[in-house]
Design brief:
- With 118 residues, the protein is an alpha+beta fold.
- It has one domain (3-104).
- 25% of the residues lie in helices and 32% in strands.
- The chain contains three helices and six strands; from the N terminus they run H-E-H-E-E-E-E-H-E.
- It has helices at residues 3-12, 18-26, 80-89, and strands at 15-16, 30-42, 45-55, 62-65, 76-79, 104-107.
- Strands 1, 2, 3, 4, 5 and 6 form a six-stranded mixed sheet that branches.
- A hairpin with a 6-residue loop joins strand 3 and strand 4 (62-65).
């Protein structure tokens, strides 16, 4: 294996796609939402920049959410509506969203779409 292949293989261990995230959530990982840009309200919606990591409960293992393992494009959410929709699709029934860069919030999720219960 070439040095370049080793580096690529190492990088893929630190990223996860949406499908992979669902698998990790069922194994007990948490979703960590990280604010990268101060959120601001424009009209009736909030805009900013948020990324998502899958993390173990002890925080020792973190994987960045990417759009594709072959492209390594970090999945970034630009609106709170988009982020909350994503969290709901991952099985969250509520959301805490950091609004200041560097702030992080962890969410337990179940890897499947949220369903309402009576």
């Amino acid at each position: 294996m070439s040095e370049e292949d080793k580096q690529l293989d190492g990088a893929t261990q630190n990223v996860v796609t949406e499908d992979g995230l669902r698998d990790l959530l069922s194994d007990g990982y948490l979703i960590e939402v990280i604010c990268n840009q101060t959120a601001e309200k424009r009209h009736n919606s909030w805009y900013g920049a948020w990324i998502v990591h899958a993390v173990t409960k002890d925080g020792q293992d973190a994987k960045m959410l990417v759009t594709s393992r072959s492209v390594f494009k970090l999945r970034e959410f630009k609106t709170i509506v988009g982020l909350v929709s994503f969290l709901a699709e991952m099985g969250r029934l509520s959301a805490n969203i950091p609004l200041i860069p560097g702030r992080r919030e962890r969410h337990e999720a179940f890897g499947s779409p949220a369903t309402a219960t009576n």
